[in-house]
Amino acid sequence: GHVLHLFFRPFPKAAGVHETAVISPSANIDPTASIGAYVVIESNVTIGKNVTVMPFCYVGENCKIGEASLILPHAVLLRDIAIGNRCEIGPGAILGHAGFGYYWDGSKQVHVPQAGGVILGDNVDIGALTAIDRATADNTVIGDGNKFDNLVQIAHNVTIGKHEVFASQVGIAGSRRIGDRLMA
What is the pTM of this model? Predict the structure, then answer.
């Protein structure tokens, strides 16, 4: 494993903000950040030092991205997402979509509003096409050092401890609490 680090090529980092990016005037972007082509950044977003947001990403209102994090192409941070330092969000990952909550009103299924957010600790890696739902009222919380493979589903209001590993196609149902150092 150590030898492979010698051959790893990091993704290119373009300096500054690409001319095709659409950025709200209320966004706060550190001058060391790199914002790629066709990125959309909504209101009240904060992007920290040395962050890279690659092309075609969407960063919704009130999101915060910590220092040295990497957001790969087509990732979606819908709104109220807090990403820690040194995180990697994979291509096509979706953070903050509504949780799957319905109730029967006597004639039809009614969606329970999902008004919460998502919080990721430091050094969290999210694989491609992984989905982490926002909470119903509080936050879905992913602790420090967690690693998610591609195609993982984390439902609303889940709290995950630290330094866990989730393999492809693992799904965690809503409102579950998981301790530290799990391998699933």
Answer: 0.94
| CA torsion through residues 41, 60, 163, 150, sign | negative
Residue 55 CB coordination number (10 Å):
16
**What's the rounded Cα separation, in Å, for the pair 78 and 57?**
10
Round to whole Å and give the CA distance between 118 and 103.
23
3-state secondary structure of 6: helix
The whole-angstrom separation of Cα 106 and Cα 17 is 52
| Token output for 135 | 């909470």
Given pLDDT bands bounded at 50, 70 and 90, which one contains residue 182? confident
Q: Is 156 one of the catalytic residues?
A: yes
Nearest to 147 by CA among 122, 116, 175, 172: 122
Q: What six digits make up the tokens of 38?
A: 């066709």
CB atoms within 10 A of CB 124: 27
Q: Which is the catalytic residue, given 18, 97, 111, 156?
A: 156
| Tens digit of each residue's pLDDT (9 = 90 or more) over 140-164 | 999 999 999 999 999 999 999 999 9
CA distance 43 to 180: 34
Beta-carbon contacts of residue 158 (< 8 Å; ≥ 6 apart): 140, 141, 172, 173, 174, 175, 176, 177, 178
Q: Which amino acid is at 89?
A: I
* In contact, 133 and 112? CB cutoff 8 Å: no
